[in-house]
Amino acid sequence: MSKSYKKKYQTKSPEEKKEAVQALTKRMEKSVEGYFRTPEDLKEYLTFMAKFYHYSPSNISLIQSQFQGASAVGSFSFWKEKGFPVKKGEKGIKILVPNRTVAKFKDKEGSWKTVTKASEEEKKQIESKSVEVMPGRLYFAVGHVFDLSQTNAKAEDLPRIFPNRWLEGSVTDYQSLYKGMEAIAEKNGVKIIEPKQELGVAKGVSYTLTKEVALNPRNSELQNVKTLLHELAHAKLHTAETHMNYTAPEKEFQAEMTAYAVSSYFGIDTSEYSLGYLASWTQGKEMKDKTKLLKEVHETSIEFIETIENTLEKEKEQINEKEVESMANQNEKQDEKNILLVEFMSLSNTTQELVSVAELREQADRDRAFEPVEGAEKLSDKEFIDAFNEVNQEKYAALNQNEINRPTMLVQWSKNENFKSSQLIPFGEANEKMAEVIINIEKAKEEARERDEYVPYDKTRYHIAIPKEVDRDFGRMELVSMDRLDMGDGDYKTPYEQVLNEKRYLSDEVKQALRDEVMNYRNNKEIPMEKAQENTVEKPKETPNHLVTIEVLANGIQDEELARIHMMDAVTKDISYLSVWNQDKTDRDDLYVSLMEKNGKRENIYLDNILKPDLYEKVQSSIFDGRGNLSFVVYEKDANMSLDEIVKDERYGLLVDKAEAQKDYSFNEKEVELYKEMKTDGYAPIASLDQQIQPLKEKEPTTLDKDLSRKFEAYRRSQYEETPDNIDSIVTRVKAEERYYTTKYVSIDNELVSQEHVVKLENQVDEKLGKEGITVNQSTTSKEMDIDKKFQPLNGKQTNHKEKDKEPEPGNVDQSKSTKKSSRKKETMEMER
């Protein structure tokens, strides 16, 4: 066989390779230019780009121009590795492949050598950067890719070839897709918030300065997807540092292209809306660097698509995990230890154990200490627990801590017919019912005494289950076991009073939970039926339910301080107390408290001016006749003075005491806000607090005032120096004008400064310039200027300070003509309509 044969492919010379690359580049540039001609061209490009987002904009253009309808492309070797070789005779699609020449280094002789020829010693020198290195030069060569249709692969093979490709065509799970967009926002440091003002027909808005975006609550889910992508593109591409580098049409073009491309990738067709929107912003408008605009759109779309895909993949994994967990939970539910098994011992003692339902069933079945539950195997868990408590009520109680979500009384036993053994009653309700029983028994005892008869008190033993939510540290239900309550013996009017008196060790959280339960039940009960039907417009302001108790100190530790009024402030949650003093030991009525006044001074008030006679006499008797060591709950009905006013005065007193005690004035934000509110209520100023607040009021505006004044002065001077025949003076004026009004509107819209304050600054600048003989004929202060004024940039295109995407009116697609805007324009806000 002859060894001479004709080659099918001739190696190209460097000049020929260069010409091929240049030809492809020109072809690409021509394609890019064509995308800006009609909405249909834009749609074709964006849809195509969504398929091939891993390729550069240049190569996307080349693929589209050479192979219409391409769906998935790869190199010859790629398809071969995947097991789907390219069909014989298929022609490759040309693309530009970046390459880099081999890097060189200078050896000890001073000669340049490629790094591939470096010795081991020279490689170490290169790594340590002890020799001079010249990086390789980037150049492009022509490469070839092939479409799916040019191989023997089928559409159903794509998931195996491209496992991350979303081929379903549409994503119907709005919540999952929204989470993906939230991930984009988080990745770019953007917050999704509620609109700061009424958006009207605008679909969304991007607040550039604060890196926030908002959606119109009237939007549909489909509109939200497209609009949020649009606003996130603004936030990503047009930041506070870069947004002035783009014209309004360029910004809207990029944002809507990104939104359309990403939506298209996930099978959401927004072309009817997006293409009309793009037409309104691009037709008749000049866009300078179109390739750069497309490149940034492409890069942003890639980032958005990959972020959403990662989120959707995680969501899918979580759903799968939840399904597995759900199946496991069904099997393990009975093994969860959420049943508090209580064994009643002598007196108020108990033993407690957390068990699962399965364990309780097993114990009840085999342990003879328990009374058996008939037909237990046929009962649901809840039915079984109810039956267990019924048959074991004398010795045991099983409480499901997942079902007890408020302080609840567990009645162990009671001699009163209104309460049953093992009965569970919300503590607020039980407190009121037992209070009524106590009142009735005491009344009956009084009547019986007149007849020289005896009425016994009703013995009751109970416990209080505190829900696990109150335990912030361990999340476990707590059982508070009480001594026997003898209803009607005169010691306590309510179980709540007994708890506060005998269980002082309880945490503040438990005390607060009990107080809230008691007060909420009492308040709800006291609302008359007819009141509920009244118009609630004139509903009076509710008074906070403060917890106020008076503690009589134990005998032996008393000096001049005999008791304390404890207050838990319902507003601040702070706990404080006031001492009850007695100087004249021979005078039982010499009991007084130093109350804070609104003038910032304390005044001694006798205790009988604070408490009504009934409670006052009990406290007085406990101090002088008893052993002390008792506590009494103080309700509004027991007081001559408003408890709310006393607590508020002491709240103010704590600030006064702190100001007097410390040398360096340092109050936290909460204290400052409380103080501001108190001043409006007529409390006297605290000098040290005012000194701390004053710098806060002046500090921030000072820097901003200087910036606004400086930019306004530059603008005024440029106006004064502007002449119609001097283009440079016009340029200077336009730039100064945009800089000033951008800063001004951003500051006002973000509530950093008021409109009135800006007017004052402008007047000060005008007054200063007037002294220099600089006056401007055109009066354009904030008070007088037309805030709908349009700034004319150098290229003749209109920009606005609050960019709004307006859908073109029918038959009026050309938006290049001047149209009157009805609202102020802000360069820092990209708004989509």
Automatic annotation (TrEMBL):
Residues 18-125 form the N-terminal domain. GO terms for molecular function: single-stranded DNA binding. Residues 800-809 have a biased composition (Basic and acidic residues). Residues 1-10 have a biased composition (Basic residues). Residues 185-262 form the IrrE N-terminal-like domain. Keywords: Coiled coil. Residues 1-20, 772-833 are annotated as: Disordered. Pfam families: ArdcN, LPD25, Peptidase_M78. Residues 302-332 form a coiled coil. Residues 402-511 form the Large polyvalent protein associated domain. The lineage of its organism: Bacteria, Bacillati, Bacillota, Bacilli, Bacillales. This is ImmA/IrrE family metallo-endopeptidase.
